[in-house]
């Protein structure tokens, strides 16, 4: 079933906080839900579908729905990491088209930054003699029997940063990509973040500053990595006839795609992501090509994540991503393809360590003409949001969403 034209995004809201010391996770969900409802001009009584992934506390959608006082006839808690909120827009459109709900709420929220600060404070309070943290005996955690592959992977110490670094290193080996080219992605994000009062990193940086920042996992430097923040966001998706009755610009869902990529039974190729499958499906459903897209929101957990999506979504050929992003081609106003005009996860916000929802929110802002004037794409009609959930060098899911201002 094609979802082209079956639903519109009628509400969008991003939490302004980046450090939620005084709010619980469920309160953050409530804050963003309330903000999106106000943006759409709706009330919670209008919501009959709710979508939320693993960032929901306790019993997931049930806990948050109870806290919000929602009366629902459809829920979806599909979990696929950072790509989940983008995928949820497609699932909401599908549920609306199938008659399962009329107006769907999607929320994401978390407070990993505050939680880390609290953990550090507890460790300091429990410090041993001389102020050194008390050390617990080392213990090896047995692999989860429901995840048999971990027994073979854990001895090698996989971590998020080194799994993405593997992909970057392979791209450099195969195609001659350089650290300086990757750095241009951070530079572009910083040019946009300077105009965002809520961005965590608002200083414009240079290529030299990126490549000279401390190495995190070769070849990725500190400034190649996203921020860690609290906060969240919410979206409201509704039937087109309902959208037409609301006093907001109409943002139509035109194309959707989702796809997983895993170890492929050992046939591992690190030169592409699952976006190579989700992207073509979304473009085919929307009936447009990459050349029609005027603005892109690309998941930016690391600079290499952006580069891979640019290639796999068809904005440039495989292996040419480094040359494509060089010299500021992602910077709004001067570049060929403006991206992440809020500063993205690299500079502004990566809430709950799964920032996919902010990608849709900024795409909606661009299509409504509500982005900051310094970064607003003139006459923006077509936008794309793309998310990666998981790890590029391991298991991950890609979600692609194409939106039109109508």
What does this structure look like?
- This protein has 406 residues and is α/β, with parallel strands linked by helices.
- It has helices at residues 25-40, 61-68, 84-97, 112-125, 150-153, 160-175, 179-193, 207-211, 240-245, 275-286, 303-312, 321-325, 344-347, 356-368, and strands at 8-14, 49-51, 74-76, 103-110, 215-217, 220-221, 231-238, 251-261, 295-298, 382-390, 396-405.
- Residues 136-140 have low confidence and may be disordered.
State the end-to-end distance: 21 Å
Number of strands: 11
The structural class is alpha/beta
Radius of gyration: 21 Å
Concise overview:
By secondary structure, the chain is an alpha/beta fold. Helix content is 35%, strand content 17%.
Helices and strands in order, then pairings?
Elements: E1 8-14, H1 25-40, E2 49-51, H2 61-68, E3 74-76, H3 84-97, E4 103-110, H4 112-125, H5 150-153, H6 160-175, H7 179-193, H8 207-211, E5 215-217, E6 220-221, E7 231-238, H9 240-245, E8 251-261, H10 275-286, E9 295-298, H11 303-312, H12 321-325, H13 344-347, H14 356-368, E10 382-390, E11 396-405
Parallel strand pairs: 2-3, 2-4, 9-10
Antiparallel strand pairs: 1-7, 1-8, 4-7, 5-6, 8-11, 10-11
List the keywords.
9-stranded mixed β-sheet; two-stranded antiparallel ribbon; about 400 residues; alpha/beta
């Amino acid at each position: 079933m094609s979802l082209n034209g079956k639903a519109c995004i009628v509400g969008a809201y991003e939490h302004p906080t980046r450090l939620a010391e005084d709010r619980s996770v469920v309160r953050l969900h409530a804050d963003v839900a309330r903000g999106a409802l106000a943006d759409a001009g709706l009330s919670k009584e209008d919501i009959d579908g709710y979508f939320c992934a693993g960032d929901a506390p306790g019993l997931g959608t049930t806990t948050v729905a109870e806290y919000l006082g929602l009366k629902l006839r459809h829920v979806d808690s599909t979990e696929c990491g950072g790509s989940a909120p983008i995928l949820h827009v497609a699932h909401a459109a599908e549920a609306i088209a199938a008659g399962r709900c009329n107006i769907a709420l999607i929320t994401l929220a978390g407070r990993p930054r505050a939680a880390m600060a609290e953990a550090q404070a507890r460790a300091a309070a429990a410090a041993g003699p001389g102020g050194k943290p008390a050390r617990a005996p080392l213990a090896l955690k047995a692999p989860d029997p429901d995840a048999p592959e971990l027994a073979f992977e854990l001895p090698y110490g996989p971590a998020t940063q080194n799994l993405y670094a593997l992909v970057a290193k392979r791209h450099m080996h195969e195609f001659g990509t350089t650290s300086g080219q990757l750095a241009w992605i951070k530079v572009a994000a910083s040019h946009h973040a300077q105009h965002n009062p809520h961005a965590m990193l608002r200083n414009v940086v240079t290529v030299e500053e990126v490549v000279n920042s401390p190495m995190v996992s070769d070849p990725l430097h500190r400034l190649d990595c996203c921020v860690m923040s609290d906060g969240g966001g919410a979206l409201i998706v509704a039937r087109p006839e309902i959208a037409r009755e609301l006093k907001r610009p109409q943002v139509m869902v035109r194309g959707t795609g989702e796809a997983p990529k895993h170890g492929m039974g050992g046939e591992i190729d690190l030169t592409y992501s699952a976006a190579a499958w989700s992207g073509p499906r979304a473009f085919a459903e929307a009936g447009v090509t990459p050349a029609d897209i005027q603005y892109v929101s690309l998941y930016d957990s690391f600079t290499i994540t952006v580069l891979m999506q640019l290639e796999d979504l068809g904005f440039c050929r495989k292996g040419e991503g480094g040359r494509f992003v060089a010299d500021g081609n992602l910077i709004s106003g001067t570049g060929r393809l403006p991206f992440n005009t809020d500063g993205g996860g690299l500079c502004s916000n990566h809430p709950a360590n799964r920032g996919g929802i902010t990608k849709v929110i900024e795409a909606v802002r661009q299509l409504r003409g509500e982005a900051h004037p310094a970064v607003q794409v003139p006459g923006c009609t077509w936008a794309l949001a793309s998310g990666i959930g998981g790890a590029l060098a391991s298991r991950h899911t890609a979600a692609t969403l194409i939106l039109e201002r109508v």
